[in-house]
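Milestone M4 deliverable, item 7.
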Amino acid sequence: MRHPHGLRAAAGGGIVLPNIGDAFEGGFFAGLISHTADGVATHALIVAPRATGASGTGYTITTQLAWQSTTSTTSATSPFDGADNTSKMTNSPAADFCTGLTIGGYSDWYLPARFELDIAYYHLKPTTASNSTSWGINDYSVPKRTVNNTAGDPAQTSVTAFKDTGSEPFVADPHWSSTEDSSTDAWRLSFSSGSQTNLSKTSNQRVRAFRKLAL
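Output delivered:
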């Protein structure tokens, strides 16, 4: 059986996946990621509610967080496993914000890795702005994406709540990922264009927590 968005409708243990953007497991279903870093091939990605799982009460425009308050090298280098990265981050207001959350009875929230953010952007892009055509290949998405975005693909999400006029959208600004680039920089992803760029870890950027469910 196929999911309406081309994803699997059911997985091991009888888990039935909802539509992209539907309420699910404490947040909202954002898509599937496939890797075996923890011995599990496929995970459902879950985005935290905006009001409680994004930096700042009500996700105000001015509230952002640093990746590290004092820069140092970590081993948080995975491009796809934000939970593992987050567990390795030190002196991190962004990571501490995520791990300090309890939402819907779940306390395993983390700062997403760069390609986890990319999956959320692909499915839940908030605006009609043009995409950067230098990004979009994602070896970990389900299905795997082997070509970069075009200016118009992905299009603005069809999920009303996640459009920029809705109640749950990603703000169309860069968001920190948990993926380290160097001792001084980490990766971020823009929810305006889908571009992935590095930036000083002490810079303040938007943060939105994720969790995942093994399938």
